[in-house]
User: Fold these one by one.
Assistant:
Number 1:
Amino acid sequence: MLSTDIAKDIQKAVDRRFDEQVDFTAELVGFPSTRGNEATAQDFMATAFAQRGLEVDRWKLNVDDIQHLPGFSPGVIDYTNSYNVVGAHRPESPRRNGGKSLILNGHIDVVPEGPLDMWDSPPYQARRDGDRLYGRGAGDMKAGLVSCLYAFDALAAAGYRPAADVFVQSVIEEECTGNGALACLARGYRAEAAIIPEPSGHSLVSAQTGTIWQQITVKGHPVHASRATEGFNAIKAAYVLIQALEVLEAKWNAEKGEHKHHCGHAHPINFNIGKIAGGDWAASVPAWCTFDLRAAIFADDDIQARARELEDCIQAAAAKDRHMSNRPPEIVYQGFMAEGFALDDMANAALPVSLLGACHQQVHGTELKHNAITGTTDARFFGLYADIPGLVYGPRSVDVHGFNEWVDLESVRKSTQAIALFMANWCGLEKIQP
Ligand SMILES: [Zn+2]
């Protein structure tokens, strides 16, 4: 470990620039970087990387580069305006001090803000209230992404540079496919560890569930509503399928004892009907209904087998229905086909995990908690497809994906310090020559 003096200097350097860090985060929240609209936020990040002397690599996602790779998920949109940005620090002579390379990864994309009238203040005008910063994406995960940059700055302010390669990645598509992180792998970025400061409430994510998205469409038989019994109502038919999926969800949860990473969790598997649309007119029996399903799978599940189980469940329920048995529902894969992942299963994770524990202890004065989560993160790409331990560790945030999302700024300050200390210890330090 670093000398206590240097560690203290780095922590103080974070504190000195923290107001600026909050302002920068607030400015970044101002870009409504929902899916397909990330480009200007990425420009902002690219400028910030360049100002720090990081070498900027900005490129447009191209499905042809990634669709043959494990972990690819079918996209929901085309990638005409979809850019990743990486800022690279490459020391003159890496490894001179035995330093190890590091990826700091965060996603720039945010989920839709929902009805504006449910927010107390506009979601893309960050609002600071004491130790809270409100705004869509403030917690998930712009504060974390920005903390990577300011952790890097803190080393410089204390008079040092990392003695090994550091790649700061601002990626898109985390919330729907993960194809942004996958594109970074396809482009060749590798390191000996990765940190992803998702809002984990300063615990380390030890395992994560996988995620499958399916879009299901039922066709009805439209007739005048006055003769509804002669038609077939696609919206009501969708209910039947949704109820069958609820039974399957309960069955999967009942199997949790067989899955070591999530057996202690009350309800690890969550199915969500996140969107539904159907019909055209109150006086016509609806001819169509489409709904979007998000299903979780266990960290150690076979994703293809689970996807087939979902399909079988839907088709079995349809087969029992007179109309749907003649015209089975269509199931389309759009978005996540994300395998589960457990950092705990990686032999080479022990070293970075124990170092992060020590850095966390230094900042918080408490032991680092490990936590299995019931959602996915980009950590799976590093762990499953590149053998890089991906450590998800970041600040505390409340109401992510809801309204009035906020991030706890004191926890942002502390996790920035912990990440800076991790970088200093993991990569080693070189004195900046005045
Ligand atoms: Zn996130």
Number 2:
Amino acid sequence: MRKTATPEATKQLASTLAPYLHEGDVILLEGDLGAGKTQFVQGIAEGLGIRAAATSPTFNILLQYDGGRLPLYHFDLYRLDDASELEDIDFYGTVEGDGVSFIEWGSKFPEAMPFGFLEIKIGIDEDGVRAVKAHAFGTRARSMLKVWASDSKSRLMKVGN
Ligand SMILES: Nc1ncnc2c1ncn2[C@@H]1O[C@H](COP(=O)(O)OP(=O)(O)O)[C@@H](O)[C@H]1O
Ligand SMILES: [Mg+2]
């Protein structure tokens, strides 16, 4: 768990994960509206060397960013009503594809999520500080989390306890 007091700190923490991402990795982002999930993806984009800013995909269910070390796919499933719509946006092909996928509101369609993924939950304390927690599902996610957690830069972002 890491605490981030500003949007910049959330982005910086996210950017420390970017070097450890591999083709085909899937990261589920959980947290209320406004928690900072999209900010986190912006930090990933920066960490991958993508120059265009990752804007909120709430109205765009899938945004794709090229030009970085890996293609970045940013899904926001908030506005999807039915899992069948995932096929329309080639969700399954994309998450198994050549890039890394960050998925907001994936918990709406748990049966559609791949077997292995890193889950990142962002909570908001009373003082507005974000608590960023990561939980790995599957062997690939476990090794990703292990190297990320031991990265000295990711530890520098820890504030408070
Ligand atoms: N520590 C923080 N981390 C991330 N965002 C923060 C933080 N403090 C304030 N914010 C603000 O909260 C909002 C988060 O928005 P966004 O990332 O779009 O949320 P989500 O995608 O989870 O709905 C932004 O307006 C951002 O400036
Ligand atoms: Mg968002």
Number 3:
Amino acid sequence: MTQYSTAQNPCSDNVILNQWHAIAALEDTGRNPHRTRLLGEDLIYYLDGDDVVVSRASGERAGPGLPVHCDYGYIWTCLGQPEKPLFDMPEYHEADRRNVCAASVGVRVSAPRAVENFLDMGHFPYVHTGILGEVPHTEVREYDVELDLEKDEVLATRCRFYQPQAAAGATGGMLTEYIYRVPHPYCSILYKSCPDDESRFDVIALFVQPVDEENIRAHALVSVIDAHSASIDIRMFQQTIFGQDKPILENQVPKKLPLDPRAETPIRADKSAVFYRRWLSQKGITYGVIPAAA
Ligand SMILES: [Fe+2]
């Protein structure tokens, strides 16, 4: 198991404790117990017949069971009391989609930093050069962001960006349209133009497992309308993107996300980040962030 050097502070943030968090791809889970860490606590998970068991680790043994929910290809659990069902992502269940658990990557950064990076189109030409962007197409065009109070999520729409290779199945450059949802403090869903069907969107979801305040495992689900690409190519495409993001994320200082609006200068590309930070502040989240001074 990965060793984490950061001193462990138990999570006292009830908003985060009461969320469902993804811990592993269901397809990677078997009868042999595996260990992982969530919010600074060691967990064991395994299959018992058709059931998934997740529990706190007590030495080498499993302790009392935790709540389990399996959806979107991943195992989700909660260390507190789940206050509401996991967010809705109906596209996953459409019959003609390819759903691929594409990656689970350890990164030394806080969960909110990873979500914010996922929302940021401005880094595409510089970090994902030749794939999600390229010089001189560096402009982030005007887009809309709102806080959907009914659904309790941040929504960014009308995002457009020129991409040389928007997806594993893309055969040339295209002006890609994006919609971002942030329906969970540590998860985001991206809808982007589908190279195979102009009327629909491909979906890439980021489920961030907060290992502790400054370490994560980033789980990616790719849900695409693509009859041609091999699953391994869909996986390799997403892992290439993650591999480019990982060193950028690990060099961010501070590792926690500052919520004070004056902490880091916003630019247009950061408009969704401004809403995301404000939403975290309104929720009173303290884990993985540097709260704004009262
Ligand atoms: Fe990126």
Number 4:
Amino acid sequence: MIYVTQTFRQNEVLIMNKLTIPFNKPFISGKELYYVANSVMKGQISGNGYYTKKCESFLQNLTHSSKVLMTNSCTAALEMACILIDLKPGDEVIMPSFTFVSTANAVVLRGAVPVFCDINPETFNLDETQLSACLTDNTKAIIPVHYAGQSCEMKVINDFAKENNLYVIEDAAQSVGAYYYGQHSGALGDFGCFSFHETKNIMCGEGGALLINNPKFIEQAEIIREKGTNREAFFRREVELYTWVNHGSSYLPSELQMAFLYAQLENLKSVVKKRRKAVEYYLLHLKPLEDRGLIHLPTFLPHNEVNFHLFAILCRDVQERTKLIEYLKKQGIGAVFHYIPLHSSPAGKQFGRTGKTELTNTEHVSECLLRLPVYFDITIEEQSYVVNAMNNFFSKL
Ligand SMILES: Cc1ncc(COP(=O)(O)O)c(C=O)c1O
């Protein structure tokens, strides 16, 4: 579709043909539909079959984790990790308040307490310098969340965890294809949790994976994923029959999801490459707005090889952000914000608490952050339309 812009009056740009640019778009990268059909033809669409194993070995090779288990979501992987470390009522887990609810829910489901920590104002990741202000005798684990595929300062976090005998569960929901000092995110702590939800770089609608980086948990993790049974050992012919051996739930994805996902994983490199181009386009073309102090562009630290999952800018304040979202919406552009800080949410107040620090960065970022559309097959034409709309908005101020 072609659109035309022209200078109309001073500082005013008229957008002639309106485009519709959603915030996110599911995509087919290659053989997804063929593999889904193939899984049906193979006669197995329930869990733990051919494509599940293919995804697991792909992710194991990619991350060098001791063991990868595919799950039906990142939420499920987080819950499994919390069961595996035997999180109990009264235990505390340090995490950012600026995250998706699943990070905290996994802890709360065990009767434990999320302790909310502030974030770094540039990377929006857990502020590792605030960890000691959140530590008590009850602290059992830390859940760093790698925002937008940019890793938290894992060297500092892992050292702190070691000194204080804590587990580290990485919420790497947004981090497939992202590296920290050359090591894959999610393979840096005791556990890593990936998401393959529709909005992620690599997706299958709903899906996830648990990376078990500490091999002592592998056997128990297999049991938890299989409803508390030793079915996995049975399929390996290690036991004669399978039975209920411990607590567990239904955390296995179906083969239909894994067949779709495997095709996407095969194209991981090209997906990241495409997203990199899209993000670099915004960085270049929105720089003049940053130079005028109107927006703040994202910062990527040199030791982080990011996967370009999100393009999140900061507006000057919440009022301007609201007006900008409304304006972009009128132009047919889906731009969205997140997260409402968990410490200020009803459940966060009921089940969690903050450490001995103010969460000022969390509150500021939450009020000012705006995500612009980035998806696999976004075109230069679409991105140029978004940039024009942004320029137009600010020219009218
Ligand atoms: C940081 C974070 N954690 C956890 C999740 C939950 O992932 P899923 O939808 O796969 O359960 C998400 C999903 O958006 C997320 O962004």
